[in-house]
User: What shape does this take?
Amino acid sequence: MSPTRRCLVIHPGALGDVLLALPALAHLGDLGFERVLAAMPRLTALLGGSDYVEAAMDLDGLGLHRLFTPEPDPSVLHGLAAYDAVVSWFGAGDPVYQAHLASLGRPVVVARATPTPDSRRHASRHLLETLAPLGPSPEKAPCVRLALGAGERARAEGWFAARGLAPGEAIVLHPGAGTPAKAWPGFAVLARRLEAAGCPVVVTAGPADGATLARLARDGGLSETRIAHALSLPELAALLGAARAFVGNDSGPSHLAGAVGCPTLALFGPTDPVVWAPGYPPGACSHVRVVAGKGRGGADPWEGLTPARVEAALRELITAASVAPHD
Assistant: This one.
């Protein structure tokens, strides 16, 4: 049996950006690497010990900022030398950092975490292609799915049951986004339409979604008991896994919903779904669909993306998911 090769994977991004790396992480496993992910602490609880990462650590603990000077910190290089290969989706624009990693004398990849703006290459494919120095790229991107722990699943089902909802009954909405421009303005109307049609709605919200949430609660007639505040990522993943469907913006929760297999409708306005759409690999997951406004690059990027259109697309998705085989 050949000895285990350990690969350190450095990714500085937030939830959606790191989930876009799942096909690349799966490919590293296929190449025979044990994968150690260095990322934001909130992500390590979700991905550490998953099918795509054997171990995870806090990115800040590596001290990589000390490799951006001509004289590097030897202790930082010594820590990196413990790995058989290093993939750094960080520091691609700094030749000093790259030179210090190259001095390790082992396979090293330093590349952008996102594709160049003009490439219109899906981000997950871009990350896969950066791994070419470590082995041949797969012809077809690996299909990926995050498994849910039994404890988290039970707690999610208990959360729904406490509100009189059965697993697979509620539609989860996530009206927030990393920037206000990416937040579709029609969630309040959509929530009212769904509730009026007998489809119970639950809303998830992060710490930065206060203003968006207040508008939705006011205009959408939503009860406070139907709002899931500031869940941990494993808790959010389990909640999405127990939902009937999910509607969200170009945001991390939309990628997470797709990754756990929840029927997911992702709404795109100013950003390009060709590059950022959830679904692994993109376009191959029947449970993930994108609806985009017609005005990207114009004054109103959400042009044509009415609540009625979103509701119709959601109903089509739910119908298709109920009859389609599991991806």
In short: DSSP finds 13 helices and eleven strands in the chain. The domain at 5-134 is CATH 3.40.50.2000 (Rossmann fold).
